[in-house]
Here is the input.
Amino acid sequence: MLRGPPLTVGSGNADNETMIRRVIILCAVLALVISGLFPPYIEHSEGINYRSPGTFTRTAGYHSIFKPPARSAQWSDSPYPNYEEQNVTFYVGRERLLLEWLFVILVTAGLVLAARSPGKKSAG
Here is the structure.
């Protein structure tokens, strides 16, 4: 097991700050990759209700990009009884995915800024 000095924020040691920032950025990159591999999916269904034609859209959860959700997984819990679905499509919820990525980037930027020594001034 590797032993070394503890990593503390604000100790004034540039090596510790650099290491902390690298770990923060590495975690952010991993979060972005994982959220890209398992994006949120949206289900869009068109069908015929017992009264009139209709459509509905709802979230279908997070699934692998290599194995997107299938109709059979969603058929049993249809939100509308007596609704015969004719056309069901699943697609990646781009807006939700972009919001997730934006959140990860903002949190990462905040953590990187918080990892600075209190005495350091920003360039500019």
In short: The CA atoms of residues 6 and 16 lie 9 Å apart. Residues 14-36+97-114 form one domain. The helical segments are 14-37, 71-75, 94-114.
